[in-house]
């Protein structure tokens, strides 16, 4: 390790993206000999997480008789529990890789060494060679690129999520069902014979800012929005677990911001929701974060590998990191733009009450995203 720095690589944020990036770098360190102070280990990933596969069914309640059709990639959904995924990734990292209770307030580049300095909430300063900001939608690192929290926009739609327990078992079949009526959508997914996960998207109301901490009021407000939904859906809502009920407003970065920003400054870059918060409308934010992680780690590892072949030197230097990050940003730009643009259009279609705007959005979508599974036909490369 360079004596001038406290850490070679600092990843800010231990969500899906931060952990996937750490794991991808760790994996490359096994394959290609990167030596950093935080990713030295010789244990192969040993734990896996369970993937649930469900058939998908869409039910439109807008007509007199409900209309149903299959949906999903190849008519199915592959689901992971976020907590399982996060846990399995964290468990596969070398011990002491993750530092908890450590909030990063800001990052600055040292005017002399050009290395990033991280200001921590406990008052200390950490000097790193490389910083990767995976700190989610309200990223502190993104502000380094002029992307402040205030530049994020809000969809008019918000989302509520929860679980309902059925002590005597539910009668839902093992499928992901999405019901839609006007601007309200309900997604339902059985987790076990007795537990069902669901989410509801509906237009934000003037009361949302007052009720978001009160699950009883959230539930009441959801049931008002869901008038006209089948009784089984209303019952699921009525019996939902209050302790797991969340109402969230949906922030996004305008897709064109992804085209016209440079997401690398010195040896600092960002990934995941820190770069491209999109809202959940095409359900690809987590997947795109993992793709970012793989591409970023590969670009960095390739530079280290090339340098090692030339000089026998395995440490990361600034020039290598800058080149690797430029390559990563370039490789991810259009992929993240299209995912973000698709989600933006779906979100705006749900947001609008104007049939003319909805018609225009549908026309754009049927031209650009004729294949509803287009996002699954992408290969981010191997680890
Ligand atoms: C309702 C909903 C449904 C979704 N459904 C899907 C889906 O079906 N499929 C899918 O692929 N995606 C889905 N997504 C999107 C997905 O959840 C996100 O894209 C993904 O979690 C982003 O991961 P991340 O690691 O970039 O950010 P986050 O998961 O937000 O993690 C950021 C981490 O950084 C930490 N952090 C923040 N600030 C700091 C700081 N200053 N210092 C230190 N640490 C910090 C946070 O505590 C957190 O641990 C959904 C999102 C929502 C809201």
Walk me through what this model shows:
The structure is a single chain. This protein has 383 residues and is of the alpha+beta class. The chain folds into two domains: 7-46 and 92-152 and 253-376, FAD/NAD(P)-binding domain (3-Layer(bba) Sandwich); 154-252, D-Amino Acid Oxidase, Chain A, domain 2. It is 34% helix and 24% strand. It contains nine helices and 14 strands. The protein has helices spanning 16-32, 82-91, 208-211, 215-225, 231-238, 255-260, 285-311, 318-351, 355-368; strands at 7-12, 52-60, 67-70, 76-79, 104-109, 116-120, 125-133, 153-165, 175-181, 184-190, 195-203, 246-252, 264-265, 268-270. Strands 2, 3, 4, 8, 9, 10, 11 and 12 form an eight-stranded mixed sheet that branches. Strands 1, 5, 6, 7, 13 and 14 form a six-stranded mixed sheet that branches. Helix 1 (16-32) packs parallel to helix 2 and helix 1 (16-32) runs parallel beside helix 7. Residues 30-45 have low confidence and may be disordered. The structure holds flavin-adenine dinucleotide. Flavin-adenine dinucleotide binds next to helix 1, strand 8 and helix 7.
Task: Summarize it.
The chain contains nine helices and 14 strands. By secondary structure, it is of the alpha+beta class.
Q: What's the overall geometry?
A: elongated
Alpha-carbon Rg, integer: 22 Å
Q: CATH class of the largest domain, please?
A: Alpha Beta
SSE order, one letter for each helix or strand: EHEEEHEEEEEEEHHHEHEEHHH
CATH superfamily of the largest domain: FAD/NAD(P)-binding domain
Bound ligands:
flavin-adenine dinucleotide
Oligomer: single chain
Total strand count, please?
14
Number of helices: 9
Segments where pLDDT lies below 50 for 5+ residues?
A: 30-45
Nearest-integer average pLDDT: 89
Terminal CA distance reads: 24 Å
CATH topology of the largest domain: FAD/NAD(P)-binding domain
Structural class: alpha+beta
What is the helix fraction of residues, given as a range?
Answer: 25-40%
The share of residues in extended strands comes to: 15-25%
The main β sheet shows up as: 8 strands, mixed
The tally of structural domains comes to: 2
């Amino acid at each position: 390790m360079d004596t001038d720095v406290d850490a070679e690589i600092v990843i800010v944020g231990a969500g899906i993206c931060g952990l996937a990036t750490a794991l991808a770098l760790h994996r490359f360190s096994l394959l290609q000999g990167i030596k950093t102070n935080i990713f030295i280990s010789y244990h192969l990933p040993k734990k896996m997480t369970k993937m649930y596969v469900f058939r998908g069914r869409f039910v439109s309640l807008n007509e007199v008789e409900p209309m149903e059709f299959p949906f999903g990639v190849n008519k199915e959904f592959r689901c992971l529990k976020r907590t399982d995924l996060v846990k399995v990734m964290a468990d596969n990292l070398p011990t002491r890789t993750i530092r908890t209770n450590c909030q990063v307030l800001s990052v600055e580049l040292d005017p002399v060494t050009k290395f990033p300095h991280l200001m921590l909430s406990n008052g200390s300063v950490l000097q790193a060679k490389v910083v990767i900001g995976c700190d989610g939608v309200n990223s502190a690192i993104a502000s380094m690129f002029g992307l402040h929290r205030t530049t994020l926009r809000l969809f008019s739609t918000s989302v509520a999520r929860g679980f309902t327990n059925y002590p005597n078992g539910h009668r839902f079949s093992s499928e992901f069902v999405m019901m839609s009526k006007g601007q309200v959508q309900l997604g339902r997914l059985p987790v076990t014979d007795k537990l069902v996960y669901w989410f509801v998207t509906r237009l934000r109301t003037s009361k949302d800012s007052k009720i978001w901490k009160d699950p009883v009021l959230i539930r009441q407000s959801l049931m008002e929005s869901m008038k006209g939904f089948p009784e089984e859906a209303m019952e699921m809502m009525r019996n939902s677990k209050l302790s797991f009920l969340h109402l969230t407003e949906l922030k996004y970065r305008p897709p064109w911001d992804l085209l016209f920003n440079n997401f690398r400054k010195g040896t600092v870059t960002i990934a995941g929701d820190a770069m491209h918060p999109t809202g959940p409308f095409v359900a690809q934010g987590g997947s795109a974060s993992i793709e970012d992680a793989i591409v970023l780690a590969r670009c960095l590892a390739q530079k280290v590998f090339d340098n090692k072949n030339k000089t026998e030197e395995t440490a990361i230097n600034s020039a290598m990191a800058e080149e690797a990050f430029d390559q990563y940003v370039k490789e991810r730009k259009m992929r993240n733009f299209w995912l973000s643009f698709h989600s933006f259009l779906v979100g705006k279609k749900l947001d609008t009450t104007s049939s003319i705007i909805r018609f225009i959005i549908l026309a754009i979508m049927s031209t650009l995203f004729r294949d509803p599974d287009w996002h699954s036909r992408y290969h981010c490369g191997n680890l």
